[in-house]
Here is the input.
Amino acid sequence: MTARVPVYDTGMLIALADRKVKAVRLHAGLKDAPHRAVVLGPVLAQVWRPSPATVHAMAAVLKDCTVPQARSSAPAMRPTAAGQTVCIMCATGPDLAEWQRIGSALAVAELPPKKRPDAVDALVALTAARHGSAVVFTSDPDDLTAYLKALDAQDVHVVQI
Here is the structure.
């Protein structure tokens, strides 16, 4: 059995910045996982603020995460005794067809009442779907579940923070 790829949404990063117990414990439990937690650039941008408290909290969290395709980010896969492996999904961005899938998911996702389509949440869902066996940590499980369903994602779990 392989370990699931952890994917963080904005709510998870906010919970970590606020030092919420559940989020901190989950994050600490993932520090030895073969694949680092995935934090997409747009997710990080939604949370990042130039306040010292946020910068300090996010700097500590990002040491154990990967921001795909960011030059200064830690690699997605942790080194092993056999050497350094690469996650192809993290090394390659969505192609044109996948961006179109995100747009389609935004149009058809059955979101909870009063919720509006969110391209960043749909991108988080696509990232989890691309990895296959993944788990999304989120404060909005209904939103993420709707996007995963719209994308026909298989074997992706959602954990509420």
